Amino acid sequence: MAFDASWNTAGNTRTWTTSVSNSRDKVNPTQGVIPVFVTDEELDTQSGYFGVSQILSRTAIVRVGLNYTYSDGYLSDPYKLNDQRPQSHERIALSTGYRHFLIDANASVQFDYRYYADSWGVDSHTVELGWAQHFERTTLTPYFRYYSQREADFFEVVADLTEPHFADDYRLSSYGAMTLGARWAINLGDWTFELEGERYWSDANWGLYDGNSAPALVDFWRGTMAIIWRFD
Q1: What pLDDT, on a 0 to 100 scale, did the predictor assign at position 189?
Q2: Is residue 35 part of a domain?
Q3: Residue 100 and residue 133: Cα distance in Å, rounded?
Q4: Which of 18, 99, 145, 161 is the most exposed place for a label (fewest CB within 10 A)?
Q5: How far apart are the C-alpha atoms of 132 and 155, rounded to whole Å?
Q6: pLDDT higher than 90, residue 19
Q7: From CA 100, how far away is CA 56, in angstroms rounded?
Q8: Number of structural domains, the chain?
C-alpha cells in the first residue's frame, strides 16, 4: 500500500512532495539440492519520504529529499549459510540534486548526491554527474557515478558464528564502486523509447572507509530498454 501527494506554492516555483508506503511480505525460500533451513517467515516494511524542489532561475532547479524506512521481521539471506542478521533495520537517506540548462549548447548539467545510514552500521555516499544533450527528438545522457560504503557492524570475511549476528555477504562490506553509463531516449509523440547501458566496477581500495576486504566484489555490464506511454 502506498500514498503520495505533491503541491505547488502560489507562484509555482516550489513543489513539495510527500509519500508513505507499507508492505507485508512472506518469505518462502525454494528448497533445492542444498536445503534451506527457513520455510515460512514474515517481513513488514514502512517507509516515508518528504522533499522539495525549487526553481532558482529559468535555467536552474534544485531539489532536496529525506527518506526513512523501517523493516521488522526476517532480514537474513536464506540462501547463505553464514548469515544471521538483526530482526529490525532502520534506514535513512538524504538526497539532493541540481539541474542547470545551458541555452547555447541546448544541454543540461546534472548533479546528484545521496547520503545513506542505517542501524546496522552501514553508511554510504553516492555522487553522480551527467550531461544531457538535447536534439530535435532525442536526448543523449552520458553519466558517471561514484559510490563508497562502510561495512556493517557484524560483517566479517570469515563469519564469527559465536556472535548473535554475523554475515560474510560482500554487499555488507566496505568498498568503492564506479559506474560509467549512457542513456538514449527518443520522443515519438505520446511514446518514448529508451536504451541505457552501464559498465560497473567495484574494488575494496576505492572506498572512503577502511575495513575488511571482501573477496567477492563484482564487475559487470548492464543494459536496459524501456517503452513509455504518456496519456492525459
Answers
A1: 87
A2: no
A3: 12
A4: 161
A5: 39
A6: yes
A7: 10
A8: 1
Predicted confidence band at 11 (pLDDT cuts at 50, 70, 90)? confident
- With a cut of 90, say whether residue 27 has pLDDT above it: no
Terminal Cα-to-Cα distance of the chain (whole angstroms): 24
Residue 191 belongs to some domain of the structure: yes
What is the domain extent for residue 61? 53-229
CB-count burial class (<10 Å; 0-12, 13-18, 19+) for 215: exposed
Candidates 90, 94, 96, 124; CA nearest to 110 is 96
Return the amino acid letter for 85: R
Give me the pLDDT at residue 10, please. Answer: 81
Short-list 200, 57, 80, 187, CA closest to 135: 187
**Residue 48 within a domain:** no
Task: Quote the CA–CA distance of 17 and 66 in Å, as a whole number.
Answer: 10
Give the pLDDT score at 4: 93
